Amino acid sequence: MRITRIKPTTVTVPLEAPLRHSNGVHWGRFVRTIVEVETDEGITGVGEMGGGGESAELAFKQLESYLIGHDPFNTEELKWKISNPTASLYNNRTQLLAAIEFACLDIMGKNLGVPVYQLLGGKMRDEVEFASYLFFRYPNENGEHEVQTKEQLLSHVQELKDKYGFRSHKLKGGVFHPDYECELFQAIGEKYSSDQFRYDPNCILSVEQSVKFAKETEWMNNDYLEDPTWGLNGMRRVREKISQSLATNTVVVNFEQLAENIKNPSVDVILLDTTFWGGIRQCIKAADVCNTFQLGTAVHSSGELGVQLATMLHLGAVLPSMPFAIDAHYHHLKDDVIKGGKMRYQDGKIKIPDKPGLGVEIDYDKLQEYAELYNELGGYPYDRDPKRPNWFPVLPNTNDKWADPRKAY
To answer: What would be an example GO MF term here (predicted)?
Structure first.
């Protein structure tokens, strides 16, 4: 079997409301690139990458010269063809590699008639538990779904618990002053004291702000404090002063950084992302290293549609240890591009697909609809806020560049 064509399609899929974070806003939609890898045996595999547009589609098409004629079963060779570490200093293709790897694993599973998890060692569980992913949100075009006040946040948590059954809650912070966010985070902990919690301000706090936040919330049932400040040394300084575990998807996202973290510990829990690490297989390799050195692991979300969510589920299926509910933006989406619509949560969990390959198929009517929407709207800058046009992020934020929770936007 040989690869004959790579077909990328950029889409934008609406969210319930714009999602605010420390470095900007998701502007009411996600932009993703769906990648189809065709073969000479008529089997097509699908992958997905964050971002998109002409540049992403061109980057994937340029890989055809590397990959036409490549055997999709040769996934280790695939990694070195696309993303060897020296060449990647000049043409970082890690996320491109991930999307192509997803598609090749999908092809392999379809060819053999088995789910992807069977190719990766077999599943250890039948379903994967998810955390709620709580964002401060601007109201949508109908003036609905705003999350800015304590009352709105608590109402949102209850809504998600009632609708999806979440028992673990992650608050994406770094939007408002940490004292205000700490107050709201503690309010969740007080009201839902039997649940688990985590807080992620995307590295925008100083070491001192991080330590203060950690000490004021150490009474809660916290899984970990995620990326409170920037850099391995910054995280190490925080870790030395607090009792909570620290997690990251920012400062340990490759094997060189993982080795440094093992030699000089800065982080306790490594958040594996099937895109950031370059594919499912790379995440499994990293998890094996973490298990050897008794580092915790969890699964990170990077704004997925159903194709990448399937990769997260297959990863979650095969990891021997899953001590934490995994992250997903998925419940914020209004729709998906896979047949049957969005995958369904039950009791805070999603069942692992058991059809051959990744277990999802593209709904081409939806793909076309959201590709046309992308062509109409274009992309948006991740690190800007459309309602604060003169604002830009500074890390750490010690200059009072925080949003005002008393202001209506």
So the answer is: metal ion binding
The model's pTM: 0.96
Tokens of 112: 């053999």
- Per the structure, how many domains does the chain have? 2
How far apart are alpha carbons 198 and 207 in whole angstroms?
Answer: 18
Task: Please indicate, yes or no, whether residues 174 and 238 belong to a single structural domain of this protein.
Answer: yes
Please indicate, yes or no, whether residues 141 and 260 belong to a single structural domain of this protein: yes
One-letter identity of residue 234: G
C-alpha distances out from residue 213 to 84, 198, 217, Å: 40, 12, 6
Residues 106 and 198 reside in one and the same domain = no
Tokens 């714009």 — which residue?
18
- Asked whether the CA dihedral 136, 233, 393, 382 is positive or negative, the reply is negative
| Segment 64-96, tens digit of pLDDT | 999 999 999 999 999 999 998 888 777 789 999
AA letter at 406? R
Are 157 and 215 found together in one domain?
yes
Mean pLDDT, all residues of the chain: 96
User: What 3-state DSSP class applies to 400?
Assistant: coil
C-alpha span between 14 and 280 (Å, rounded): 26
Q: What is the CATH number of the domain that holds 166?
A: 3.20.20.120
Q: In terms of domains, do 98 and 140 share one?
A: no
For 189, the enclosing helix (H) or strand (E) is: helix 178-191
> What's the pLDDT tens digit per position in 332-351?
999 999 999 999 999 999 99
Give one word for 261, left, alpha or beta, with left for phi > 0 and alpha for psi -120 to 50: alpha
Do the domain assignments include residue 105?
Answer: yes
Domain that holds residue 97: 3-113+364-377
